[in-house]
Structure formats: structure tokens, C-alpha cells
Amino acid sequence: MARGDHRTPDYLCPFCVIAQGVDDSHIASQFSDVFYRTDHVIGLVASHWWPRNPGHALVIPVQHFENIYDLPADLTADIARVAQMESRSDRTMNARVGRMFGTTIFM
């Protein structure tokens, strides 16, 4: 296990489930919420986490990393690139509909 890993043997990471393309009724986000995917990074809409912000997006690595200390620098750059691309889209959408959209980066 990675440094600082808090997972118990029965822990099911919701982001890993989504990354595997599996829908699970115990996880609010589903694979159909994914709007961007490469071999290393996923972007998904997660409006149920922020109900007052229906356009909220999450950018996450495909591979599970317990914390940022274990995340390789090149993957960090890929995640940041996708988050920047999504944020630029958010800014355009904000101007069109007069509503805040946001992006959260999970590393």
C-alpha cells in the first residue's frame, strides 16, 4: 500500500469504480457522467455533490493514488491541463447562462 494509505481491505474507492467504467448504485456519480477521458485522466460532471452548482466538474486520475505525495509529476501536469481546459469552458458557459460552473481537481 502507498504511504499514508487509510483504506481498509473492504474499501471501495468511488473514483476507481467510475474509472473502471462500472455503475454502482451506492455511488452517486456514474460512468455516464464522464465527459473527458484519456488513459490517465478523467473529467466528470458531479452536480449532485454541489446541488446549487449543477455544472460542477471533477478532474481525477484514472489510476488510484492515495495522496498527492504518490502522484507522479507528469500525471499532475496532465490533470492540471484538463482542469484548465475545463475551466476555460466553464468561463464561457458562465457568461452564456449567468450561472457559476466550477472545476475541482482531485489528485
CATH class: Alpha Beta
Spatial separation of the terminal alpha carbons:
17 Å
Q: What do we call the CATH topology?
A: HIT family, subunit A
Average pLDDT number: 76
Give the CATH architecture: 2-Layer Sandwich
Describe the structure.
The chain has 107 residues and is an alpha+beta fold. The chain has helices at 14-19, 73-97; strands spanning 34-37, 41-45, 57-61, 103-105. The chain has a four-stranded mixed sheet. The two termini are 17 Å apart.
Give the helix/strand layout.
Elements: H1 14-19, E1 34-37, E2 41-45, E3 57-61, H2 73-97, E4 103-105
Parallel strand pairs: 3-4
Antiparallel strand pairs: 1-2, 2-3
What would a concise description of this structure say?
The protein is built from 2 helices and 4 strands, in the order αβββαβ. It is α+β, with helices and mostly antiparallel strands and 107 residues long.
